[in-house]
Amino acid sequence: MSSRSLDKSLESLDAKVAALAATAAIDRWRSDVAAAIFHLRRTRPQLMAVCILGGTGTGKSSLVNRLLGANLSSANFRRTFTAGPVAVASKLADVPDKWLGLPRTVAAPGELPVRGQIDSLIVIEAKHDLLDHVVLVDTPDLDGDQPLHHAQADRAFRWAEAIIFLVSPEKYQMTELLPYYRLARRYAVPSLFVMNKCETPEMLEDYRQLVSADDKDTPVFAIARDDAAYEPPAQCNLSSLAQAISSLQPNEEAQRDAGMAVRIADVLGRLRDQITGPLRNQRRDIDAVVASLRAMESPVPGVDVNPITEQLQRRLQQRSVLYLIGPGRILDRVRQMPGILVRLPRTAWDLVINGRMNLNSPSSGNPLSGERQLPDFHATLTDQLAIIQSRIDDAVRSVPAGPGWLSDPSQAYAESKIDPAEAGKIADEELKDLNDWLQKRWNATPRDTVLLLKLLRHLPGGEKLTQWTEAAPYLLAIIVAAHHAIFGHVDLMILGGYSLATWLTEKLSNEVASRTRQANRAIAMRFERLARRQIRQSIAWIESQAPRLSEIDAIESMANDLQESL
User: Fold this and answer.
1) Which of 98, 197, 326, 390 has its CA 20 to 30 A from that of 58?
2) pLDDT number for residue 90
3) What's this model's pTM, rounded to 2 decimal places?
4) Do residues 67 and 170 touch, judged by C-beta distance below 8 A?
């Protein structure tokens, strides 16, 4: 496949990966792909970007200053000092366009020497014969105590068109450099090897043998320590190094193409190992968690408002005339008149004995006033939603990637959770509606009593009976017995009303029970909808942690096609 076709294929693959959620691995891979595309397009550069790579204290910034004869890059021999890449060129236009994929800033003369900034390219414009042939780039340390600095140096290596590996006698065997030696050879990147602060020829020879490969002698350069008696040979001193840098040229086309094929193959291999492979594992975990959440049943709210309505049901029964004539009850009351008189309600006793009735007695109080200790329905529903959220957390933690998702600093998981107070609001709102209904019904006359009172008004003496029954429904039984009217019109109506009484009394009880069930049902349905919404939001958040298998398959298919074309 031609370089142009590889260029387009890599761009398409990069666009697919860019659609995934950004991670550190994806960001680094995309930077490497951008570097590969850059090298595919820069076939014969006029000025090569030459990067100086090395460890802490090896003198990279000092070498830049010595080669160019000016104090341009800030140096410190004791610790990591250069934080980001610093490019030195005759003019800004000499720096390759979009090189490193970082924003660039031109350093003002008053800012010299510059130290560099993370994720930014500082450009210094200077005049020197060497800059007519190359752009010289100072980089952070490969072995520093700052991981970000290593990432900046690695990025520079991927984008470099030529490399100067710089070591010192203390660090020429540093393990961090060895992989970059191998990669430079694999990618066919022109490289120079320099030992700074060299003190003996033995050190220089040992370094030369270390960097030589395939039984080929690799030339190395030396810069003597300032206070050392050793003086490097002319063919490998600082002047020779400057001449070698000026003479750097890209490798032959065949060698370069082979290096590009290896570079792209490595990029594709990292795609599988560091991106699509882990994403497949995450998708497997996600599917397991989602299946668990979808099968999760919402717990029963555990709210029964019956304690609120049971007193109203009792009151309506006590105020109902037909309650007294339910099956068997009126005959028992008539047979036991002495006991009835003794056990008369306070209101009825006062009316019969004293001729007055206290309507403000404690027994006629409203239990809805809050004196009764009722269950805390608000707290019950709040706790139930918290239980659901805890079960969701447990399901997420049950997979290997789960703890990492929960510790996501972006707070996305916390935002997917519903405030438990919303569950408590369900109880508050439904109980308010129920309380309003109870307040209206509390002082209402039962419908069966209203019906009977209408009938009594049409009977002889019924007007008087109506007054008594309105005062206290229990008086109806007493009046029947006291006036020997057990076989009168009223008694016949009572005794003949057994079946009617049974039906009406049942209907009366069902009215309150129905409203109770309605409130319980409304609370249960609303809580279930809230719980389902919480589960759906959690599923949506979990689904966002990795792309779908179809997306991963599409990326791997493109990578495989590109691999086959190399």
Assistant:
1) 98
2) 93
3) 0.68
4) no
Inter-residue contact 468 to 452 (CB < 8 Å):
no
At 135 the pLDDT is 94
- The per-residue pLDDT for range 477-507, each reduced to its tens digit, is 444 444 444 434 444 444 444 344 444 444 5
Smallest CA-to-CA distance from 297 within 402, 390, 394, 388 is with: 388
Residues 168/62, Cβ–Cβ less than 8 Å: no
Exposure string over 44-60, b if 16+ CB within 10 A, otherwise e: ebebbbbbbbbbbbbbb
State yes or no: cis peptide before 420, omega within 30 of 0: no
> Cβ distance 155 to 69 under 8 Å?
no
Sign of CA dihedral 452, 454, 456, 462: positive
Domain positions in the chain: 45-249, 306-393+420-542
Average pLDDT over residues 15-44: 90
- Which amino acid belongs to residue 183? L
User: Which CATH number applies to 45-249?
Assistant: 3.40.50.300
Burial 515-544 (b: 16+ CB within 10 A, else e): bbeebbebbbebbeebbeebbeebbebbee
What Rg value do the Cα atoms of the chain yield, rounded? 46
Q: How far apart are CA 195 and CA 203, in angstroms?
A: 9
Torsion of CA 111, 115, 119, 125, to 10 degrees: 50
Q: What residues contact residue 137 under an 8 Å CB cut-off, 6+ apart?
A: 49, 50, 51, 52, 85, 86, 87, 88, 156, 160
Closest CA to 252 of 565, 38, 43: 43
Q: Identify the three-state secondary structure at position 479.
A: helix
Looking at the chain, the whole-number percentage of residues with pLDDT higher than 90 is 34
Query: Exposed, middle or buried by CB within 10 Å (0-12, 13-18, 19+), for 547?
Result: buried
For residue 389, what are the CA distances in angstroms to 382, 405, 419? 11, 15, 10
How far is residue 537's CA from residue 361's CA, in Å, rounded to a whole number? 54
Beta bridge partners, 166, equal: 54, 194
Q: How far apart are CA 53 and CA 555, in angstroms?
A: 33
| CA dihedral sign, ordered 491, 492, 495, 498 | negative
Name the residue type at position 491.
D
C-alpha 85/C-alpha 151 separation (Å) is 11
Distance CA 166, CA 222 (A): 10
pLDDT at 98 > cutoff 80: yes
- Kindly compute the dihedral angle of the four CA atoms of residues 134, 135, 136, 142, in this order, to the nearest 10 degrees: -110
Angstrom CA distances, 562 to 11, 34, 158, stand at 11, 16, 20
